[in-house]
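RECORD TYPE: inverse folding
INPUT: structure tokens
STRUCTURE:
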């Protein structure tokens, strides 16, 4: 029976290990001779097996044992790394994931599939053994007449090793179970500098020795080297000996003579002073500086040795609760600042300003806790590209850029499905077959590229391919055929490309398991807009297609622009604001009252927020227009007054207002009033739908 709490701990660990396993297998497929990758696969399997048995996941432990046994033979050279081995091991990884989800439940179909995988793996072992004789050990070492191999082992426990309750003596005892251990030197009991130099004489091979360190990977630094004879260890340890020590060891001089000679040596400072080359005062000053520098270096060195990054697992719910509390603090701090500004007390000003600064730092710090590199999401798509390209008979490589770019974890989790749709489109629609690419003078291997980069307060994620690109004429014809646009509609190239995001739109001629149902790109747009982001597409015929997804760094707290219409306040996301201009009556008359106006010879559609939200009151003679951007299109929002920048804590409107048009949330201002957050994407859609027939 699996304990619920322990089960969750194992599931978290196993999920990470399965991701590591998949990544290592895909790399091993491209570099089958890389023994380090073979060891990575083995370690992941070994850890899953050991932890699974410990936490009661016996079926996972039993199944993984069979796969681990095969990879033990792979790293010993008995079984070669082949495409079949990679395929079966990836299938094993998927099977472990299914067992993880089942927990205590037994599914006969899943169990049968597991037995098929085990049988296939075992047949590879038999075939590998018959195809060629057993290969020599991975790292051959001279074996003495007794059949024992000597290994020099150096290991240093890191602070995390002790934090996890580790004891170096336990490691030494583990080593003693497989051979004779001789400790040549150690530094026990020295804070942050403890180490051990060991000679191990054993009948086991190198991999068996390294296996003892699997469960302390990352928290113990270690090296294991096969050596010719025990005396070689002493040479390794003594390789940094000074000249005098070497002469004493050889017997060329005695230790007493060496000490006498060293006593007669004069420091360089005395020699320089005696030769009248440097004044004594300057030498003494230099010696003082040398002493201070040396002490500082020792302090930094000791600190560097002791510093080790530590981490703890915290549930997402606790982080969300912390962010919500910080959001409330930001709102309260804004109210405090507004009240203090009305009191005008000099004694109050300084502490209020300090609270504002600390609140801002706390906000940034807490939001940063949820930020994780997007590379982990990119990596998981390598399997998708590999499997789908194989299924479609295409040769495709996935490359990534900007994997270190950080984004809110909740957004990364929700970004997965849109990226899956985009990558599938690249492989199915974008990249041509090898014969078509050869005919077009392109390399046989197609490229799908995932990239991410910070751009101000946003992150831009791009998915591109070097395939055939999109033909605007074909897109237009397909849209007319499906009734999405009329045959008389006049569209720009950008508008034509955006047709691909319309519900039901697809250029596929046949419905397959991959595409053709017309739901992919519409799902992408809906998901991205749900994250308060935008999506745009560009393409060059014969060169490829690029989709850009622009997202805010976080959905919890944003920088906004506070605006006013009558007595009602609104907030615009600062990332979508381009500029502010004035709108006079002459500007409207110039275009005969149509809902467009000119800014530096550019025609821009606009929406008057007073009319859209049905706000009562007279318009001011000179109205303000904030120009915002959405998917490369510009839109003017006409309002009464621009108040200024505002640190905005986003609050959901609730179920009753989930379909409210033109707004995406609300926030509380410093004076306690509620301000609605404008949904620029929704307003842009409304403007295009309302004004399309009138724009010439």
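DESIGNED SEQUENCE:
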């Amino acid at each position: 029976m699996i304990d619920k709490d322990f089960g969750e701990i194992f599931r978290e660990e196993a999920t990470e290990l399965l991701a590591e396993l998949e990544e290592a297998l895909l790399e091993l497929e491209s570099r089958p001779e890389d023994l380090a990758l073979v060891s990575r696969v083995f370690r992941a399997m070994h850890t899953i097996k050991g932890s699974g048995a410990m936490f009661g996941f016996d079926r996972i432990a039993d199944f993984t044992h069979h796969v681990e046994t095969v990879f033990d033979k792979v790293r010993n050279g008995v079984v070669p790394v082949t495409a079949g081995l990679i395929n079966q091991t990836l299938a094993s990884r998927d099977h472990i994931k299914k067992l993880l989800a089942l927990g205590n439940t037994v599914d006969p179909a899943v169990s049968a599939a597991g037995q098929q995988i085990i049988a296939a793996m075992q047949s590879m072992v038999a075939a590998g053994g018959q195809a060629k004789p057993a290969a020599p050990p991975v790292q051959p070492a001279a074996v003495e007449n007794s059949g024992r191999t000597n290994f020099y082992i150096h290991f240093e426990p890191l602070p995390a090793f002790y934090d996890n309750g580790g004891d170096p003596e336990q490691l030494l005892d583990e080593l003693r179970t497989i051979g004779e251990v001789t400790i040549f030197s150690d530094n026990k009991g020295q804070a942050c500098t403890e180490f051990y130099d060991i000679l191990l004489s054993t009948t086991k091979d190198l991999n068996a020795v390294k296996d003892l360190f699997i469960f302390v990977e990352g928290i113990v630094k270690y090296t294991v080297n096969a050596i010719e004879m025990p005396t070689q260890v002493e040479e390794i340890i003594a390789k940094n000996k000074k000249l005098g020590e070497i002469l004493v060891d050889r017997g060329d001089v005695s230790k007493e003579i060496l000490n006498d000679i060293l006593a007669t040596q004069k420091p360089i400072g005395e020699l320089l002073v005696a030769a009248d080359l440097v004044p004594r005062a300057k030498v003494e000053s230099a010696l003082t500086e040398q002493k201070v520098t040396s002490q500082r270096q020792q302090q930094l060195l000791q600190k560097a040795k002791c510093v080790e990054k530590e981490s703890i697992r915290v549930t997402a719910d606790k982080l969300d609760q912390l962010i919500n509390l910080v959001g409330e603090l930001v709102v309260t701090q804004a109210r405090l600042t507004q009240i203090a500004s009305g009191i005008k007390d000099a004694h109050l000003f300084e502490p209020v300003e300090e609270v504002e600064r600390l609140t801002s730092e706390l906000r940034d710090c807490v939001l940063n806790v949820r930020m994780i590199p997007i590379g982990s999401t990119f990596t998981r798509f390598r399997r998708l590209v590999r499997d789908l390209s194989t299924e479609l008979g295409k040769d495709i490589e996935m490359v990534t850029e900007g994997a270190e770019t950080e984004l809110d974890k909740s957004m990364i989790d929700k970004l997965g499905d849109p990226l899956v749709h985009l990558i599938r489109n690249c492989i199915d629609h974008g990249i041509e077959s090898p014969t078509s690419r050869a005919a077009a003078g392109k390399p046989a291997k197609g490229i799908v590229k995932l990239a991410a980069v910070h751009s101000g307060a946003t992150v831009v994620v791009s998915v591109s391919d070097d395939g055939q690109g999109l033909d605007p004429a074909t897109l237009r014809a397909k849209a007319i055929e499906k009734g999405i646009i009329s045959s008389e509609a006049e569209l720009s190239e950008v508008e034509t490309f955006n047709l691909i995001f319309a519900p039901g739109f697809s250029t596929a001629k046949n419905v397959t398991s991959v595409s053709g149902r017309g739901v992919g790109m519409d799902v992408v747009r809906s998901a991205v807009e749900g994250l308060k982001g935008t999506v745009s597409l560009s393409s060059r015929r014969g060169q490829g297609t690029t989709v850009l997804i622009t997202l805010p760094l976080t959905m919890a707290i944003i920088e906004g622009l506070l605006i006013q219409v009558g007595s009602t306040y609104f907030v615009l996301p600062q990332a979508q604001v381009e500029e502010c201009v004035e709108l006079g009556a002459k500007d409207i008359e110039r275009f005969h009252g149509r809902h467009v106006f000119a800014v530096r010879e550019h025609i821009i559609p606009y929406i008057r927020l007073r009319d859209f939200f049905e706000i009562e009151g007279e318009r001011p003679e000179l109205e303000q227009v904030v120009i915002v951007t959405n998917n490369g299109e510009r839109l003017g929002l006409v309002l009464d007054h621009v108040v200024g920048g505002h640190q905005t804590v986003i609050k959901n409107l609730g179920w009753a207002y989930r379909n409210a048009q033109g707004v995406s949330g609300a926030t509380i201002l410093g004076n306690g009033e509620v301000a609605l957050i404008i949904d620029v994407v929704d307003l842009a859609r409304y403007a295009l739908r309302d004004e399309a027939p009138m724009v010439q």
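NOTES: The radius of gyration is 34 Å.
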